[in-house]
Design a protein that fits this description.
Residues 5-256 form the ABC transporter domain. It is a peripheral membrane protein. One of its GO terms (molecular function) is ATP hydrolysis activity. It comes from Desulfonema ishimotonii. One of its GO terms (biological process) is peptide transport. The chain is of the alpha/beta class and 325 residues long. It has a domain at 99-173. 32% of the residues lie in helices and 23% in strands. It contains eleven helices and twelve strands. An eight-stranded mixed β-sheet has the order 6-7-8-3-9-10-12-11, sandwiched between helices. Strands 2-1-4-5 form a four-stranded antiparallel β-sheet, with helices on one face. Bound molecules: iron/sulfur cluster (SF4) and magnesium ion. The site of magnesium ion has 4 residues, from loops. Residues 43, 48, 180-181 line the site of magnesium ion.
Amino acid sequence: YEHLLEVERLQTRFETVDGIAQAVSDVSFHMDRGETLGLVGESGCGKSVTSLSIMGLIRWPPGKIVSGAIRFKGDDLLQLSPAEMRKVRGDRISMIFQEPMTSLNPVYTIGRQIAEMFRVHRQMGKKEAHDRAVEMLRRVQMPSPVKRAREYPHQLSGGMRQRAMIAMALACDPEILIADEPTTALDVTIQAQIIDLMLRLREDFGTATLMITHDLGVVAEMADRVVVMYAGRVVEAGQTRAVFKSPQHPYTRGLLRSVPRLGLRSETGRSRLKEVRGIVPNLYHLPEGCSFTPRCPEAMPVCKETLPRLTDQESGHQVRCHLYG
Ligand code: SF4
Ligand code: MG
């Protein structure tokens, strides 16, 4: 296989009483070993649905992966049985969420939940699994790990819960970590701590990370490459430095214009993507042409009629826009 993870022409939709919502229309990207890929876009652009598709967590009804492939080390995850996918999840590929309570069970201690990962995926005995759980808490710099291991999620602060969730996600040394807005719900000081922790753990574990965020500061600090999504499609992709230095797509340019001091660690200057003007697209009625047409300052007649293709620019930079032939 060529890449650690290869998402190819993924199409995921939701069929509801209101009609069919095309959450992900055509998404392709890849990740290599140890690399951090930033997946950015405003809420509803399909980034979370993309990650849930990778994790095998789209459930019918109402969700459905209609077409595409998600190859992990060359094998298409979409062809695996639910039992096979359960083995991949948490062991080879794991995920952390914005809200730790999504993955932490309120009725079990933190230590027991992390130990469970070793028991299920590594068939360890109780004592050994517990010791490894405490060791994991230490590696994520949980204060008083022995004591915290005996506590329940509600006894921990938000930042500590995030550390516990990261410990659980990394317990089995996965090859890919998917982090869906891991710092969004935290206050800025704790955000910075969690980002620092993730940077350190990346060195320590060498895990490839798919960082889903609408915080461009996080992307600038963490991502080697970035994929920008809009209305369920990739509109721009490339090396973070190249995309930030010369954004091509009008949407990306708008995003970056709304960020005052990019790449600098400024706790107050973190900018969010909702600042791009215009109305968020309706996924039930996507226009035939470019979805960004209603908000685009550079829209031309062709934009309304024809969907632009994602085309290769120099050195791996890709853009989906009629401005670039
Ligand atoms: Fe704007 Fe047209 Fe490019 Fe879409 S294709 S981003 S409407 S210029
Ligand atoms: Mg989301």
